[in-house]
């Protein structure tokens, strides 16, 4: 007796004798002469049709129940599918309380509805497909970087740094009641946080491996209920040594992936474009202000609904690590954000300040010299021009799949006032 996944059963070339397939019932159709079941174990988008004698019908055999079907795999008479399973025995492994089960048979539940059931929604077809694509995209991203000579780095989740300096850190405390209160917060002797970005650790590694990437969870206590923010999200980050221009970061690597047309504009140009349409915004565009979602949307539309790189942002707007452009009264750094249709900001990146005097004086002004001694060290021992970017993985999935709400492209969304399961 051979145990087959639904995917294997559907893809079989030849009929097979004694096989066993397990899965959950997706539909039951009982006729006078024959009982039809559709089952799936999540290995395929398509259900496997089971054909059985009506005598095998059983009151526990309902939508949502878990079953084990044993029988023969035969060619299906239907043109739509290759194989079907002629059942000899059907065993209900786990019945389903259909009255209480919130995902009803055949109904196309809206995503907002299934979101209420984080422990069950993966059984919904749409959610199931999104999560399967997420899994494939994860593998594709790893292959892309590995195939292009990048070394994968597991950057730490617990860190004593605030890379972005935006005050959105989750601080770590122990829950061990037996400890003294002072010890509680000082398990590491220093305040420790969940990481907001693996960038600083990647910069360390780029100083040895030249091209590195990381792809892991990052955390931000953003008090935002928007459809594109999470408190826990995954970020794809790459860091490249011996990189002297933003074009290297934008094109050398990204051009390969972005087959379609894209546009590059400076922050100054962006502000000029926005000012022409000032009356359309709630938040009036001014040089020195961060681009709001409404501004990002407008810029993408203005450029013809294509991806837009905005480069060279105001010095005072951006984190300490960005490279000083040393340019006049409208002082900028070599930063780049990628805005895409329907989403807004998808990637953020920059050249890093590799010059010791510049970095030291900026850190001094921020009172961060002690904390970042190791980071300054990197500029003393073979410092090279370098840069990189981070892409929000969930926003990327939203973009390629056209998914309205970020909560639907991550298995277990965490956002303010919500940490279910
Ligand atoms: O622009 P950000 O803050 O850039 C950095 O963290 C850099 N240190 C990355 C680097 O250069 N290595 O974040 C990068 C991307 C954003 O463009 C956005 O797509 C995503 O991360 N992101 C979020 N996604 C979901 N929920 C949030 N709260 C997010 N915050 C940022
Ligand atoms: Mg950003």
TrEMBL record:
Domain of life according to the entry: Eukaryota
Enzymatic reactions: tRNA(Asn) + L-asparagine + ATP = L-asparaginyl-tRNA(Asn) + AMP + diphosphate + H(+)
Enzyme Commission number: 6.1.1.22
Main localisation: mitochondrion
Keywords associated with the record: Aminoacyl-tRNA synthetase, ATP-binding, Ligase, Mitochondrion, Nucleotide-binding, Protein biosynthesis, Transit peptide
InterPro entries: Aa-tRNA-synt_II, aa-tRNA-synth_II, aa-tRNA-synth_II/BPL/LPL, Asp/Asn-tRNA-synth_IIb, NA-bd_OB-fold, NA-bd_OB_tRNA
Single GO molecular function: asparagine-tRNA ligase activity
Gene Ontology biological-process entries: asparaginyl-tRNA aminoacylation
Any Gene Ontology CC annotation: mitochondrion
Domain (Aminoacyl-transfer RNA synthetases class-II family profile) ranges: 131-411
Cellular location(s): Mitochondrion
Pfam families linked to this entry: tRNA-synt_2, tRNA_anti-codon
Family label: Belongs to the class-II aminoacyl-tRNA synthetase family.
Protein name, per record: asparagine--tRNA ligase
Originating organism: Accipiter nisus
Taxonomic path: Eukaryota, Metazoa, Chordata, Craniata, Vertebrata
